[in-house]
Amino acid sequence: MTSLAYRCAMTLSALAFGLGLLGAASADTLDDVKARGKLVVAIDPTFAPYEYTDASGTIVGYTTEIMQRVAASLGVALEYQKMAFSGIIPALIAGSVDAEGSSLNVTAERAAKVLFTVPFGKSVNAVLVRADETRVTATPLTVEALSGLTAAVKATTAPEQLLKQFNGQLKARQLPPIKIISVDSVDQTLAALMTRRADFVFDDLTVLGGLTKQLPGKVKQVGELGDSQWISWATRKGDARLNKVISDEIIALEQSGELKTLQQRYLGVSFDLPTADFIPRQ
């Protein structure tokens, strides 16, 4: 081979190698998922009604319905890898799975490590009253609207601590405090409400949704109080294309109304979800 021919061959080889690197650099997990025909998702199915196992051991719940639709939109099979919740983000970052499918509260700390999809859930405390209750009418609901009323709440929980904070606010305004009945279980809070020992139950929105499903027409939610957190999934930072596919499916389900149907079926409540500016600042 002449020197010129050798140089041309080496140039073409280097160009091909460079294009190969460029292709690899632009590729992400989405390409692997499509080539493999399978989406591998980490999950800790112990968070009913979002994700849990039924009597047969099948992973079911609100989030699994959404993830199944993501896999269907990609034309691939869905495979769950069960693991402890504490190991999910490390497994994701290490590349052991394609995405994670356990419900994550969206926090700035987590956002520094992973890329969140758009939210599909919401965590916020709310107020449940009997259907005939007329004293709590403020819109939006305020702490002052609960002044002098009796709350049933599960003991040693964040909602109980929040009620105590509310009483500090009411005291500062020289208003009667909320009387707090602390019990051992969610069912006991509902019993206190229905036997009129308590005027309202204070707990997470989805917990109250479950109670509403137990007694349809007999209780009602009247508003939210306190800070809220969005609930989402995550992919690796470099997997923007896979993340977008998942986010686009969530958005499509919300726009069609199907997401609210799933929320009502599994959570007993429905809510609007943001598509931007949902990650809190540090």
UniProtKB/TrEMBL annotation:
Pfam families named in the record: SBP_bac_3
Keyword terms, alphabetized: Signal
Signal peptide (from-to): 1-27
InterPro entries, per the entry: Solute-binding_3/MltF_N
Residue ranges occupied by any Solute-binding protein family 3/N-terminal domain in the UniProt entry: 38-270
Keyword Signal carried by entry: yes
Classification via Gene3D superfamilies: Periplasmic binding protein-like II
SUPFAM superfamilies listed in its UniProt record: Periplasmic binding protein-like II
UniProt similarity note: Belongs to the bacterial solute-binding protein 3 family.
Protein name (database record): Transporter substrate-binding domain-containing protein
